[in-house]
Amino acid sequence: MGSPKQSAGLRELVACLVVSVALFTWSCQSGGSGPLAAIRGVFQTVTMPVTYLGAAVSSPLRGLGNIFANLTADQATLTELEAQVSELQAQNAELEERASSAERLQGLLDLQDSNDLRSTAAHVISGSTDSWSATVTLDKGSAAGITPGMPVTSSSGVVGQVVSCSATTSTVRLLTDESSSISAMVQSTRAQGMLNGSASGEVTLELVSTSQDVEVGSVIVTSGLGGVFPKGLPIGEVASVSGDPSGLYLDIVVDLYADPWATEEVLVITSLTDDQRATAEDIAEADAQEGARSSEDDDTGSDE
């Protein structure tokens, strides 16, 4: 037999079970009314604030979770869009470069056609490597039929003259080089002179008599004298005009149309047609101007 304590505990357990069954049966029979319903109501009333508090606490956490998920998605979308923008920018830059190159090449073709130039196109691949000369190097040489002395022009204006060649490259002395000197004239008045470079890079039209009419903005072109440069190629325009201290010649500074350091494609003129050479009239005009200069020199010497 068990101890008195075990018997008492067993009786209590049986009593609790009986009471629980009785209460459950009573709750089912009474429905939503009665003492048990009242007890449930009291329990719900007591626990409702706790339920609301839990909902209030968990709701922001759920919101933060949603925001984080959205931010993650938005960041991925933003990264993808940035990649697309970068790709489009690269494509746009490439298209602009192709369009610019096509425009420059079209300018060379127009110059070639309008002046009936016998020429070959070349790319500028480098500039001079020292401070004593102003030259550029082309990507074509003797293998392409280029020889020293040939004129070089861009679509904007004359650039210079070939001074040396290898089989695949050519060196061009620019008009700004202090060793550069070519025949040129004022387009409107046909005043003849020599276009010279300088150590400073300034270009001047020299040996133009003070008796000649030269104005700022006048266009300077090749004269065709000497049979090297074709007649009428644009060079630049007069930037300033002043009297020489001797009183015989004008000091004429010329702004070149072509920026040799920004030029990428050029035409090397390989030969001249008869129409591109100076005419007998041009030569006679040049001789007359030279005679007038000589006469002025003689008069100056006599005065002295």
UniProtKB/TrEMBL annotation:
Positions of transmembrane segments: none
Domain (Rod shape-determining protein MreC beta-barrel core) ranges: 124-269
UniProt feature coiled coil, ranges: 71-105
Region (Disordered): 279-304
Keywords from the named record: Cell shape, Coiled coil
Similarity remark: Belongs to the MreC family.
Function summary: Involved in formation and maintenance of cell shape.
Protein name (record): Cell shape-determining protein MreC
Lineage: Bacteria, Bacillati, Actinomycetota, Coriobacteriia, Coriobacteriales
